[in-house]
Amino acid sequence: MLKNKITQSLLLGAGLAFAATALTATAAEVPAGVKLAKIQELVRGNGTEVASLDPQKVEGVPESHVLRDLLEGLVNQDANGITIPGVAERWETKDNKVFTFYLRKDAKWSNGDAVTADDFVYSFQRAVDPMTASPYSWYLDMTTMVNASDIIAGNKDKSTLGVKAIDAYTFEVTLENAVPYFVKMMAHTTMKPVHKATVEKFGDKWTKPENFVGNGAFIVNKWVVNERLVLVRNEKYWDNANTVLNKVTYLPIENQVSEMNRFLSGEIDITNELPNEHFRRLKKKHAESVAIKGNLCTYYYNFNTHKPPFDDVRVRKAISYSIDRNIIANAILGQGQKPAYFLTPEIVADFSPEMPAYGKLTQKERNAKAKELLADAGYNKSNPLEFSLLYNTSENHKKIAVAIASMWKKNLGVSVTLENQEWKTYLESKKQGDFEASRAGWCGDYNEASTFTSLMEGSNTSGGIHYKSAAYDKLTKDAVKATSEAKRQALYYAQEALLAKDMPIAPIYQYVTARLVNPHVGGYAVNNAQDQLYSKDMYIIAE
């Protein structure tokens, strides 16, 4: 499915004018000789119940999985993670500041309306409108889209955003600064369009199955909360002729063992995860179904730096240092995960920072340093440190939390109360700062270091981050304005060094995606590092 990797990466990276005429959009590409099953239905485990189906109001991975099927943005990704046309057939820029997207004229909404440039103007303005309260409004600010920052702050009207419909099928975006990776950013969930008339007619209820209007390969058929979300083919989708699956069902299963059992019984075709404690057995007995790939994600613990005890950097460092990341990555997980000492995973393109000083120590040395820091902060046997650790409901998260809490108890005499919450409540608790320490994970929105470093910017509270550092924010702004790749990378490394110094988070491990995939599923994107799976690219092989 790789169409023109060299041309695209060189032109975008060099900041030259680029038109995507050499690229073609992909759909299910069934190899010659492969016999398709009569019933083309896919069942996917999705980890948890989605918080919403509104692209401008979601922030989690479970929601993005579904919305890639329901809505199509300007661009998509292929099986290898390469940016390819979506609604935009091609695009061009002369300076990496003004981008012109030429939309395909056969793109339709599921009600038959044409998808036009005005739809993208409306949707992008909606994303920055304070009235929308999008948890990802900061993402548009990171693109440096003209006036995005002022609109988000409530200082300018959303109509002043740097977007324009030149005509029905020509969409123009203007940035404050040159951003060579801007087109890659357009594959993100928040940048998907919504149907204006439907949103305005039904308000928050527009995502109900009976109201939903989308422009993706599938539409919502049935939604039973906490049970299943059923999608069926969108006959009005511009590439419907090349879509093979007729139905896709998402199951919100938080318990990985239950999900595994339902897979082994034949009920599920693709799981969201697999249970850590069963990995070796599954690898041995069901090797044909175990799928492992690198992923642009980091697992970490987030400290609320505005509340005791984590308003003290000594406490944050002590707690971070005493986590034995090798045990977590290699013993508890053992699927290829890497111990993490950075927020940005090393799988990110062109990212090779220097290991921070604490990462060069042995675990014994880190534990000794942690004891010193905690004692210096006033905690000892007569005044032991106590705090709560929040995590969203998941057996895998629980096992890791229990193991790390044991490390803290053994190494530092710290007592930790483990608190789990279901996904929506967990997200809200973190957003409101109603926690002391919490489990978290961040997956890249595009393959460039800024998708991680921007998470820690002061105005960004996505994922429950409450880190405020003027020095860090300046590095973020300088990186956006950097005119050379070398200078930009140096600023990213400086940000990682500052995170190691301030320790607002404790990186724990760099993810791999490990799940069960039935061999009869064709078109599974094994080489997509961002795990952007499109059901329109998949099909069921006859057994």
Which short descriptors sum up this protein?
543 residues; 18 helices; 18 strands; disordered N terminus; alpha+beta; single chain; six-stranded mixed β-sheet; four-stranded mixed β-sheet; globular
Walk me through this protein's architecture.
- With 543 residues, the protein is of the alpha+beta class.
- The relative contact order is 0.16.
- It has helices spanning 5-14, 61-70, 117-128, 137-142, 148-152, 182-185, 196-202, 256-264, 279-285, 313-321, 325-333, 357-360, 363-376, 395-412, 423-432, 450-453, 470-481, 485-502, and strands at residues 41-45, 75-77, 83-85, 88-93, 98-103, 163-167, 170-174, 218-224, 228-233, 247-251, 290-303, 338-339, 386-392, 415-421, 437-443, 505-516, 521-522, 539-540.
- A hairpin with a 4-residue loop joins strand 4 and strand 5.
- The chain is 31% helix and 19% strand.
- Residues 1-23 have low confidence and may be disordered.
- It is globular.
- The protein is built from 18 helices and 18 strands.
- The longest helix has 18 residues, at 395-412.
Structural class: alpha+beta
Shape: globular
> How helical, in percent, are the residues?
25-40%
Give, in spatial order, the strands making up the sheet with the most strands.
12-16-11-15-13-14
Overall mean pLDDT score? 92
Beginning-to-end CA distance, first to last residue? 24 Å
Main sheet characteristics = 6 strands, mixed
Instruction: Extract low-pLDDT stretches.
Output: 1-23
Separate helix tally: 18
